[in-house]
Design a protein that fits this description.
homodimer, UDP-N-acetylmuramoyl-L-alanine:D-glutamate ligase, 9-stranded mixed beta sheet, 5-stranded mixed beta sheet, 11 helices
Chain lengths: 307, 307
């Protein structure tokens, strides 16, 4: 069993109402790998970095069972850089600066050793790159999960629609679901989006939890109310990583299986926001994750007997 | 058993992205009474209206077991009027016009027949009015529930603090909880607010559900994702009405009892938003409510066995 992950490995500089980080290691594939490798190995990464990316970061991922043969290193160029600022409503952020650098002309190559992975996790990237990875696979993975964002809906909708037709699960946030579907009601938005390809739709609502839609069913997972909401960067990717990592472990791709995977994703994401960057994810162990999952169970547990 | 409700009975004119209402009957006490009377009787209302308020509205409430002896009718004056506009994000709204009219100098009088109610529901009104009602009661109710809003935090904080010291449960939305406590994290906000008096804090998050805090415990109830989010006016009051109505029925004021009451409140509130004003509430019966409660159970039900 294996999960192949495509996504950025990059530098971020983050400002929140509670502090400001230096240029730190981030990127969708980084967060997804840290998170997924709690549940399954290997996690096989496809990405691109510049000569400025610290090799130690790849080394510690390798030591966790994350393979990085598919990470291209462009020695004479710079890694993708993003800088952003969060306001008191941590669900919204302003981009201060984006330097595409090596990501601008990224042509992903799937190493032959990566073939046969049962799950493909397409982290947020250009739909053309995501499509290229799908097309390089000899056998279609049992599950393809797609993360994307409003930027691609605005600049590459046609390519995005092609990717949507090829995936099983789409992860987007609530405003993106509304934008993609043209529907305000999330129930209606989900119906429209599921016509575009994905059988499952996960709508991420940040501190307000996540919704899972499948046929006529809907499941809601809350976000854990936590004292230290410090830096939301990477929380969505961490969620995605826990989601696919756990699914690769259980191999239960049914609606019930997806529910559990969402709880796991939410539990790990709730750690991510407690410190800058990947710091908190590096401290995790399975017992800590189990305890937090138990908190989710208690959070939504009720027993009602109508009168 | 009885619930005494204090709040406005009024006219609203509402504009949403989906339509615009004429001047229709609204007000906190109206919504609370419609909602609570599904579960308990009598509901005893204390309010004030002008000669323009349709007596038929009081008659149909009376027929449901809602007592209106405490509703003062000022024949030569006009009822409170509010007009507002919702944007695509139905969680925020702009007030277009407020005419206090009879509410401007409202001096509540508790009829002697209302004495002895076990629950007092203080709907959103001036803290001075809320305080006056508490002081007119011969015996302290077993449960006092307070709804308030940011306006009173800004204009009558000292009075509001006095009321807070006398109540068991506070209902506010998330931004109000942050404003009242000066804390961004809702967990920290809850701790601060519970020091001000209430043992229980319910943070209403509109379409994102509600949180219940009690000592070190927290419970989350989602809002039901619904296709027709038509008009959110009164949803918070409808929630409060279901909450106190159900509590008066069960008499279980424990944390577990509060959880159930929040699910009931959420279920009824999910009907309220489907049509303008109280229209949808007037169509409800217990079977419809039961079915929706069952949808809540399914919405959050999951069975996770960590690996």
């Amino acid at each position: 069993m294996a999960v192949t992950v495509v996504g950025s490995m990059a530098f971020d500089a983050i400002e929140t109402p509670f502090g400001r980080s230096n240029k730190i290691v981030g990127g969708a594939a980084t967060y997804i790998s840290w998170s997924a490798s709690n549940f399954t190995r290997p996690v096989q990464v496809i990405s691109v970095v510049g000569g400025d990316f610290p090799v130690e970061e790849l080394d510690i991922l390798n030591a966790r069972g994350v393979l990085t043969e598919g990470v291209q290193i462009k020695k004479d160029r710079k890694s993708f850089f993003w800088s952003g600022k969060y306001h008191m409503d941590m669900n919204t952020r302003d981009t201060l600066e984006t330097q595409l650098n090596v990501l601008g002309d990224f042509e992903p190559v799937v190493p032959s050793g990566y073939q046969g992975a049962e799950i493909l996790m397409l982290g947020n990237l250009s739909p053309a790159v995501q499509l290229s990875v799908i097309e390089q696979l000899n056998v279609r993975p049992k599950l393809i999960v797609l993360d994307t964002m409003n930027f691609w809906m605005e600049t590459a909708l046609s390519d995005l629609e092609k990717v949507l037709q090829k995936v099983d699960v789409l992860l987007v946030n609530d405003s993106e679901a509304r934008q993609l579907s043209g529907q305000y009601s999330l129930v209606r938005a989900a119906k429209e989006i599921m016509k575009m390809g994905p059988r499952y739709l996960v709508i991420k609502k940040g501190e307000h939890g996540a919704l899972l839609f499948y046929e006529d069913h809907v499941f809601f997972a809350p976000a854990l109310p936590i004292e230290e909401v410090f830096d939301p960067t990477g929380a969505g990717d961490t969620f995605a990583g826990g989601f696919v990592g756990y699914l690769d472990h259980t191999k239960d791709f049914s609606f019930e299986g997806m529910k559990s995977a969402i709880i796991i994703g939410s539990a790990i994401a709730s750690f991510c926001v407690e410190k800058f960057g990947t710091s908190r994810l590096k401290e995790l162990n399975r017992q800590m994750i189990d305890e937090r999952v138990q908190q989710f169970v208690e959070l939504v547990n009720f027993d009602i007997s109508l009168v």
